[in-house]
Amino acid sequence: MDEPLVPLVPMSHTAHIRSHRKPRRNAPSLAMRAGVASGVIGTLAVAAAAGSASAAEPVAQTMELPTLTADLATQVAESADATQQAAADYQLQAERDAAAAKAAKQAKADLADAKKAEAKKKAEAARKAAAAEAVSRSSARTALSASASTSTNVAAPASGNVSTVIAFLKAQVGDAYVMGGTGPNAWDCSGLVQAAFKQVGVDLPRVSEAQSTSGTPVSLSNVQVGDILYWGAAGSAYHVGVYIGNGQYLDAANPSKGVVIQDLSGYPATGAVRVL
């Protein structure tokens, strides 16, 4: 079947020229765009409301902020003051500790100096006492020597000779014992006896063996003051001393005792001789 023929409409002479008017948008597109715009506006409104609410809330906080800031400043100031005070207290305590340590050190040094001074004072006193004792002994010996030099065996009575010997012997008490010593401050037994009798002009042998046979032998039951006592056999005695009465004798005993006075009962002699 043949298609119907469409009549040809004659075209305008301006149909080929593009129109400068904006094309119309259809209604659905406009409605959709209006809805989107409305939604955007609503969102902005909600955001603005939320922003207003958010902006309103800090206003109250800002009103209270000066109070909080003032409290914080007070606390900081108080903390600083406390820190400064603690530092000051620490420094003061450190200074006190240093002063106490210095004082203790000074006190210790002063005590040591005082002890040294006291020891020096005692040593000086002991030295002076020893010097005085030495002078005293020297004076006694000088007097005994002078007395002996003015007397002779013939003119002086026996009792005077004996007392001179005993006085000399007692003046040596406390002197040291030294083997081979003959004075004036250290003796052995025979050296002391020889020096004592020399004060009255009696020359005795130097050693104990020979002294034990000098003079006249006497029994121990008849011994008198001034008699020479000996220990060991006559002629070979190993020790001598002088009887001073009351059961006692004086001798240069040994290094530990020196010149002493002892009892015969503690160390009985073997025999005795008389030279005065």
Percentage of residues in strands:
5-15%
Q: From the 3D coordinates, which CATH architecture of the largest domain would you assign?
A: Alpha-Beta Complex
Using only CA atoms, what is the Rg? 68 Å
- The residue-averaged pLDDT reads 75
Topology:
Blueprint: H1 27-149, H2 158-171, E1 176-177, E2 186-187, H3 189-198, H4 208-211, E3 216-218, E4 228-231, E5 239-245, E6 248-252, E7 259-263, E8 271-274
Relevant terms:
276 residues; alpha+beta; endopeptidase fold (from Nostoc punctiforme); 6-stranded antiparallel beta sheet; two-stranded parallel ribbon; 4 helices; 8 strands; 55% helix; rod-shaped
What do these coordinates show?
The chain is α+β, with helices and mostly antiparallel strands. It folds into 2 domains: 72-150; 160-274, Alpha-Beta Complex (endopeptidase fold (from Nostoc punctiforme)), CATH 3.90.1720.10. It has helices at residues 27-149, 158-171, 189-198, 208-211, and strands at residues 176-177, 186-187, 216-218, 228-231, 239-245, 248-252, 259-263, 271-274. The strands form 2 sheets. A 6-stranded antiparallel sheet has the order 3-8-4-5-6-7. A two-stranded parallel sheet has the order 1-2. Strand 6 and strand 7 (259-263) form a beta hairpin. Helix 2 (158-171) crosses helix 3. It is rod-shaped.
